Amino acid sequence: MTSQVSSPAGQADEANDADQAGETVLRGQRAPHSEKAGVGEKEIRRLDRVIIRFAGDSGDGMQLTGDRFTSETASFGNDLSTLPNFPAEIRAPAGTLPGVSSFQLHFADHDILTPGDAPNVLVAMNPAALRANIGDVPRGAEIIVNTDEFTKRPMAKVGYETSPLEDGSLQAYNVHPVPLTTLTIEALKEFGLSRKEAERSKNMFALGLLSWMYHRPTDGTEAFLRAKFAKKPQIAEANVAAFRAGWNFGETTEDFAVSYEVAPATQTFPTGTYRNISGNLALSYGLIAASRQADLPLYLGSYPITPASDILHELSKHKNFGVRTFQAEDEIAGIGAALGAAFGGSLGVTTTSGPGVALKSETIGLAVSLELPLLIIDIQRGGPSTGLPTKTEQADLLQAMFGRNGEAPVPIVAPKTPADCFDAALDAARIALTYRTPVFLLSDGYLANGSEPWRIPEVDELPDLRVQFASGPNHELADGTEVFWPYKRDQQTLARPWAVPGTPGLEHRIGGIEKQDGTGNISYDPANHDFMVRTRQAKVDGIEVPDVEVDDPSDARTLVLGWGSTYGPITAAVRRLRAEGQSIAQVHLRHLNPFPRNLGEVLERYDKVVVPEMNLGQLATLIRAKYLVDARSYNQVNGMPFKAEQLATALKEAIDA
Question: Which H or E element spans position 342?
Fold first, then answer.
């Protein structure tokens, strides 16, 4: 979905995610495609933000439901942030706690940064969904429950001895019992579907109900359903009917006396054309843009692995842009093919997660030795080993820094938001192509699957990444003979020439054994090895990266330093503290190797430096070692992103300590 915004940039204070005080009006409701207001009048409450969580079995279509609600919210013009959360199993046991899948969406009429700490609305499709999520729901929140699933057996599966809908345990919440399954089956009687087929549309009934509650557009969802099930028109129309039935139920039932409006975020975005985008999709588009700006074919050698597989899926759709994708038999073959493509003159890319990086490490070392441009996209997840495939973590930083034999330095770039993945991909390609080096891009599951509005850039805003291939001899021997030296370096970047195989006169040796400076011949000379090791390190150390920007409006004495996906929660926490009168500064790193040149000077300004990370202190370790700063870690490794309130409390304690 795209939307046009024609307002100046604005900024709002995310001081309290739960604050939803708003204006109340009375107005007749309008059903989709209706020209007249609905029967009677219902209260409409205007809010500045809402956090909704859809939860059910992994087969209940919660991710699709959340995605459609998000798409319509994006087209409406709200700022938004999402948090999909699903099991690692392809189909976990139905009705069990490990099988619960959820999708949280935070949308607002102003600038927001996170998917929200706690949902204002929980849609629970079964007892397992209720039990797994009720601990996150604040008192007074709305809970919509599919009562058809609250029978003895499903409740017993998750430890309910009595029905929570009847025993008073939910008195603190505004509970809306809705027989979603029954109502959906009744609405689809005319389609002649089996009960099982009709039941599958109950997520669309729920989506219609929530679309009515929050005045979401409907045309896009109906068009989507007809396109998705184009080969099964009966199923398509059944889903549309279920969606409309949910909308109409909200309008006519007395249980939902209030609906809500969240106005578009007209003051949040610079002028431009926007669309909702996930981190993996933004990364894919960034890689395509990089290849076009470099005027090089893009080659992806990859092996499917959660949560990186979506990049392989997406890039395989874009052969028209010169993209070639190779789904290899394993991780080693994937990166080997990508490095071979780089040798052949393509923009070589491999995508993976932490376990795949471990398998690719030898070939990454080979890329360091060959000094060829190669992008290693690591979408981090919970570890070690197979770990938590569908949960997020930031624990691959030290692996990216040091996870190879010998001295094998590799630049590291980390995006901070889903939309920023586009720019980070371009930045990583710039470094790889300019300095002839493999580059790590460290995203994670939170960014990969989460989404937010993204302004589609104009082509003339993109960097020029074109490279000059070697075309002839570049060195003159003592006897006057002109020859090609594959390791004769650019004096500014220390990059070696990139010679495409088959170019007459530029034949040269490649391989993993140490090269002689200049000639590229095999060399076991100790002095040469020392020189080559130091030169490769100097090349990485000399990479041009922007200085860090310090957000410090009040000469604070405490600095919070972050990297990657912690940007949203950290910034939201900092806003909360400043709204309370606290003085705190913020710096967020994109470049983790090399660090920005002014980072040391910035760190020295502050009495206290706090580093929140979704690991056990990996960036803090690097900061302490390089700058001798007493960086204090604040760590979390539970597979979920930080909550803004949690971080605000920790940072307040650091300020007061």
Answer: helix 331-343
User: Any alpha helices (H) in 77-172, and if so which ranges?
Assistant: 127-133, 152-157
**H-assigned helices in 77-151:** 127-133
CA distance 105 to 324: 34
Give the Cα separation of 44 and 28 in Å (integer): 9
* Beta-sheet strand order (sheet of 585-589): 585-589, 558-563, 608-613, 631-635
User: Across-strand partners of 269?
Assistant: none
Handedness of CA 82, 616, 545, 111 (dihedral sign): positive
Over residues 102-147, the pLDDT tens digits come to 999 999 999 999 999 999 999 999 999 999 999 999 999 999 999 9
CA dihedral 73, 449, 268, 461 (to 10 degrees): -120
Task: Tell me the C-alpha distance between 204 and 113, whole Å.
Answer: 28
Q: Is 140 helix (H, G, I), strand (E, B) or coil?
A: coil
Cα-to-chain-centroid distance, residue 484: 44
pLDDT digits (tens, 9 = 90+) for 221-266: 999 999 999 999 999 999 999 999 999 999 999 999 999 999 999 8
Torsion of CA 118, 121, 124, 130, to 10 degrees: 40
Candidates 493, 496, 439, 504; CA nearest to 471 is: 504
Packing angle of the helix pair 279-294, 420-435 (nearest 10 deg): 40
422/427 Cα distance (integer angstroms) = 9
Place of tokens 């942030």: 81
Tell me 455's DSSP state. E
DSSP per residue over 628-655, as a string?
---EEEEE--SSSPPPHHHHHHHHHHHH
Nearest to 434 by CA among 290, 643, 310: 290
Instruction: Return all residues near 240 (Cβ < 8 A) that are at least 6 apart.
Output: 204, 222, 225, 226
Give per-10-residue mean pLDDT for the chain (657 aa). 41 41 38 42 92 95 96 95 91 89 97 96 98 97 97 96 96 97 96 94 97 96 96 96 97 93 88 94 98 98 97 98 98 98 98 98 98 98 96 98 98 98 98 98 98 96 97 96 97 97 92 96 97 98 98 96 98 98 98 98 98 98 97 97 97 95
